[in-house]
Amino acid sequence: MNQRDVLRKEKAYKAIEKYEDVVSNDPFRMHYHIMPPVGLLNDPNGFIYYKGTYHLFYQWNPFGTEHTTKFWGHVTSQDLVNWQAQPIALAPSDWFDKDGCYSGSAIEVDGKLVIFYTGNVRDENGNRETYQCMAVSTDGVYFEKKGPIATLPAGYTPHFRDPKVWKYQDHWYMIVGAQTVNKEGTVVLFSSTDLEKWAFLGGIAGANLNGLGKFGYMWECPDLFYLDGKEVLLVSPQGLDPNGDEFNNIYQSGYFVGALDVKQPSYTHGRFHELDRGFDFYAPQTSEDSKGRRLLVGWMGIPEENEADHPTISHNWIHAMTLPRELELVKGKLYQLPVEELKTLRGKEVYYADVLLNTTEPLELDQVNGTVIELLIDVVDNESDIFCIEIGEKSKIVFDASKERLTFQRQQFKQSKQEERRCHLKNINKIQLFRDVSSIEIFVNEGEAVFSSRIFDNPTDGSIRFFASAETKINVHKWSIKRATR
Ligand code: FRU
C-alpha cells in the first residue's frame, strides 16, 4: 500500500467522523437499506457470497455528494438483511486509478477474493484514460492492488469500464461496457486462463450489432449470467430516446435473454426489457449464492438526474441501494422478488380480509399506515377500471384496467409538480410494497413488474388510502419493519 493510499483512506474515515451526526439526523435517512455513511453512493460492485458471508461493495465518494473521487466502500451480511460496514476496500491512489476506482465485480479463486475494477485516470489535459485492474484479498477485507490486466483494444474510446468476470469450463471470461469510436454503446468479451493476461475476443452485443440498430452511445455495467438454460445480459445503456412508457429516465437499465457462444464470439438475443419501471434504478449487479439463487442489487438512483434537488444533500449524503432481489426467468422475462430473508424484519402484523372498496370515498384502514413498513395487497376481485393506493399526500399507485396500465406517481424533488412512470400490465392480483421513509419499492404480481423510487414529500406522513372506481375486494397485510442499517 502506498502512502497516498493510506492518506486517502484516513481522509475518508475523517469525513465519516465529521459528518456522521449530521447524516444520521436526516429525517429522510432510511432504516433497512444500504446507504453511504457520508457522501455519495452509486453502483453496487463486487457482489459475492464468499466463505459464508455476502459481500457488497459500492461506488463511493466520501468527500461530497457529487460524482468525483470514487472509492470502493464495503458492507457484509450473513442474511442479506443486516449489513455491517467494513474497512474501505479501494482508494483511488495509484497511477492507474488516481481519479477513481470505478465499478467492477468479484470472484473467488483458490480461497481468495479477487476483484476487477476500472481505474479512471485523467491525463494532464483532462483526457480520459481507462485501465481494467485487479486486486486480491486473502481475508475478504484488505485488498492488494495488482494493477492493470487488460488494455484498451483498437476501435473503442476510453469509455471502457465496469468489468464483470466469471468462469466457464476452463477459461475465465470478462465482459466490459464500452463505446466504439463511432459512438455506439456496446459490450465486449475477453478471456483468460490465469486472470493476469486477457485476450480480447470482440464485441458481443451493442448498438448496430445483432440487428439492434441505434441503441445508445455508451453501455455501462454489463453483467452476464446463466439462468434456466439461457444467458441473460444486463446492461445500462446511455442515450436511448423515450419510447412511450419505456425509457423515461435519463439512462436505462435492462436485459436481453439469449445464447452466448464464446468461440465466435457471439450473443444472439431477443429484445431489450427495462428491469425496473420506477424513477430510481441503475447499474444493477447480480451474484449467485450457495442456495443457487441469482440475486440482484441495484443502485436506487440515476446519474445526473435530480441529484442537485435531493434534499439529503444538505445532510451530506445521497442515494441508497435497492433491497436485494431474487431473479427468475418466466416465459422469457425476468421476474424479481424481494429475498425471503426480508421477512425476518417484519414486526407486528395487521391483517384485513375481504375489504370491500366502494366507489365514493378513499378508504383508510386502522393501523394500516407507517413510514417504515411492508404492505401486501391481494386483489381478490377487481371489478373497477381504476384501482388506486395513495401513500402519504403525494405518492400514488394507479392501475387502469381499461388501459392495462400501472402508474406510479410522486412529487418532483424540488418543484411541487407531480411526475409519473408507467408500465403495461394486463391485470393486477398482488402488490407487495416496501416503504423505508424516503423510498418505495413496489413488486407487482409476484415480480412481473417492479418500480423503485425515492420520495421526498413528507417523511412523517405514513397515511395510506385505497380507492376503486367500482366494487373491488382486497386482502391487506401490513407489517412494521425493524431497523437493519444505520
Ligand atoms: C455507472 C457508472 C459506471 C462507472 C461508475 C463510476 O453509474 O458511470 O460506468 O464505473 O458509475 O462511479
UniProtKB/TrEMBL annotation:
GO cellular component: cytoplasm
Enzyme class, UniProt record, top EC level: hydrolase
Catalytic activity: Hydrolysis of terminal non-reducing beta-D-fructofuranoside residues in beta-D-fructofuranosides
Keyword entries, A-Z: Carbohydrate metabolism, Cytoplasm, Glycosidase, Hydrolase
EC id: 3.2.1.26
Every Glycosyl hydrolase family 32 C-terminal domain range: 341-473
Localization in the cell: Cytoplasm
Pathway, per record: Glycan biosynthesis; sucrose metabolism
Location of the Glycosyl hydrolase family 32 N-terminal domain: 33-338
InterPro entries linked: ConA-like_dom_sf, GH32_Enzymes, Glyco_hydro_32, Glyco_hydro_32_AS, Glyco_hydro_32_C, Glyco_hydro_32_N, Glyco_hydro_beta-prop_sf, Suc6P_hydrolase
Molecular-function annotations in GO: beta-fructofuranosidase activity
Coiled-coil annotated residue ranges, if any: none
Highest taxon listed in the record's lineage: Bacteria
Record GO biological process: carbohydrate metabolic process
Purpose: Enables the bacterium to metabolize sucrose as a sole carbon source.
UniProt similarity note: Belongs to the glycosyl hydrolase 32 family.
NCBIfam families xrefs: scrB_fam (TIGR01322)
Protein name (Swiss-Prot/TrEMBL): Sucrose-6-phosphate hydrolase
Source organism of this protein record: Terrihalobacillus insolitus
